[in-house]
Amino acid sequence: MRPAHASAVPVSFRSRLRVFARRLVHQIAQGFIIMACAAATAAFAQSSAAASAGGVFNLIVGTYTGGKGEGLYVYRFDTNTGEATPLSVAKTVNPSYLVVSRDARFVYAVNELPGDDGPASLRGDVSAFGFDPASGQLTFLNKVSAEGNDPCYLSLSPDGRYLLVANYSIAADPGGSFSVLPVEPDGKLGAAALTVHHEGGGPVKGRQDNAHVHSTVFSPDGHFVFAQDLGTDKLYAYRYTPDGGAVVAPAESRYTHMPAGSGPRHLVFGNDGRHAYLTSELNATVTVLRYRDGHLTPEQVEPLVEPGFKGAVGAAALHLSPDGRFLYVSNRGDANDISIFAVDATNGKLARVGRQSSLGKAPREFAIDPTGRWVIVGNQGSDTAYVFRRDPQTGLLGPDPKRLDIPSSVDFKFVAF
């Protein structure tokens, strides 16, 4: 009888076995890469809000300045008590969205212009500020053109070299776009290296007459940028090529179609790096998408309103709890609430666990503090913000929140010091 050693195994079988082994190793490696990149991206996003001594953080609030708002407000926020103490104000026009550098030394804010009534020839800007976390003081550095109308969203590249600004653009000319701004070593911004314009529209008259880029989000692996276009019902995919001539270029998967008239707005990636979550403003839904190598595939759609709801809607922001177990989504219009979903760790799917009134009008943005104990919700139309205690186990928000009187508050960022 022939000995049972390697030569007894048919060559074809051994070949298939080697191929299988190589594929298995590749799949395992890919899984580790995705998880590592997701962790790195999450760390990058949270690094400016890393643990502070005694659980105390800085809280920077962006406002609209057409009414009583003056610009950027800085508070000292104690996560032990939920108390927010005013520190300083930096005057700037309509800083409706802001981001903080990874080292917490710089803050970037849009200047959302011209708005509903301004001339289409007026371009919005992006302002750079130096930030002293110890004192909570902001120092203006410079301002550059967003090269588009109504800038409404900012995202820093994972390597910190570029700042992307989404230009919603109420006016059809120039229409929705996003620009790529170089970040200088001293924190100042350079003139746009590239501006990408979208074309087209959707079926909702008055809201989708032209393209409206509402957010630009980097993938967990840092290789792609997704631009959510409310006007065209598409999620555009671009490859990030910082050492190439264009910085960003259309990806092989040019875009993902969303339902006509849905109006995609904001996107966040899950902690697993394999799923993303999208708010669609016009039909008030949140969509679960599977992510893989520059491709987004819709897998689940959940309504934000209760069955039979007949009022106006306006899905806005969405954020994951620090542990990734719960997703929170704001809805404006006549709903004015926060939907709370549990995230299935195995497949990324969502299951509703609660709903919380924002206790005001137009909850455009909100934030969860880095410890996961508190959620602060801004009511743009009521000049208030409420600080809700959060149960990390159930994801639910507690009664009797603390009220802050902040004029037209629309964005919140926690920063360590």
TrEMBL record:
The keyword Metal-binding does not apply. It comes from the Bacteria. Coiled coil: none annotated. Keywords: Carbohydrate metabolism, Glucose metabolism, Signal. It comes from Paraburkholderia denitrificans. SUPFAM superfamilies: C-terminal (heme d1) domain of cytochrome cd1-nitrite reductase (SSF51004). This is Lactonase family protein. InterPro entries: Cycloisomerase_2, Haem_d1_sf, Lactonase_7-beta_prop, WD40/YVTN_repeat-like_dom_sf. Belongs to the cycloisomerase 2 family. Residues 1-45 form the signal peptide.
